[in-house]
Amino acid sequence: PICKDLEIQNPNSPTIDKFWQTAEDAQNGVNSIYSTYHRVGLARNEFFLTIIRSDEGFSTSPNSTLINNFDVFNVTDYNLWETTTVWQDLYIGIARANQVLDNVPNIDMDETTKNQLLGEAKFMRGFFYYYLATLWGNVPMLLKTSVPTDYPPTTKQADVYAQCEKDFS
């Protein structure tokens, strides 16, 4: 049998034209930002980059060459799964927040609820950028919904913190 690639759009998949229309879509968009915390980078591995380095945390992992080194601030490879998943998940949260911030203002809905959802999205974006700046210093900063051709330059840590302050206010 001969197979050919189909170029058919799935009619059941949500698109920007179909999705960002209702107050329920706005709420689901914000819910997707919070669901970023169910991803392994933020649900599990962020611990190794933050709490384990404090006086409150410690690691008893048998993987002493990788995980225990975080405990003494000895990170010799930032390509470790424990660090890359945190980086990736923070940017997934930012992408979701940016989609809410770009699309929810155009939805006809209760203004009080709309402002609350936009405030939550801004706060969460600031929170994700705060972690990025704290952990990595200078990082790429996207403030709009990203597209595949985006190659943002690195932003100075002080400018990232300034954006966090804007998002928190």
Can you describe what's shown?
The model has no long low-confidence stretch (mean pLDDT 89). The termini are far apart. The protein contains 7 helices and 2 strands; from the N terminus they run H-H-H-H-H-H-E-E-H. The protein is mainly alpha-helical and 169 residues long. Helix content is 54%, strand content 2%. It is globular, with a radius of gyration of 19 Å. Helix 6 packs antiparallel against helix 7. The protein has a two-stranded antiparallel ribbon with strand order 1-2. The longest helix is centred in the last third of the chain and has 26 residues.
Short description:
By secondary structure, the protein is mainly α. The chain is built from 7 helices and 2 strands; from the N terminus they run ααααααββα.
